TrEMBL record:
It is a multi-pass membrane protein. It holds the Pfam family DUF202. The keyword Transmembrane helix applies. Keywords: Membrane, Transmembrane, Transmembrane helix. It comes from Salinimicrobium oceani. The keyword Zinc does not apply. Its main location: membrane. This is DUF202 domain-containing protein.
Length: 80
């Protein structure tokens, strides 16, 4: 059970890491004067970053709920 929970947390952290990289890349593109011709890409990255975070958080919560449900059901069946 602990390994399953940790795997779920690692997956969430991967989404979080991706969110941070995409967000910081978007900010960097908008701030660096040499990259002014790529402003559209910077805006796109800033718009997509929160979506990545929300998907990661929703997936984490969904999987956590199913992990708890599975192990709770499995323990009850084994006790009977």
């Amino acid at each position: 059970m602990d390994r399953t929970r940790m795997a779920n947390e690692r997956t969430f952290l991967a989404y979080l890491r991706t969110f941070i990289v995409v967000l910081s890349s978007g900010v960097a593109i908008l701030r660096v004067e040499a990259l002014q011709d790529m402003i559209d890409l910077g805006i796109f990255l800033l718009a997509i970053a929160p979506i990545i975070f929300i998907i990661g958080l929703a997936r984490f919560l969904y999987v956590r709920r199913h992990i708890r449900k599975y192990y709770t059901t499995k323990i009850k069946v084994e006790e009977e």
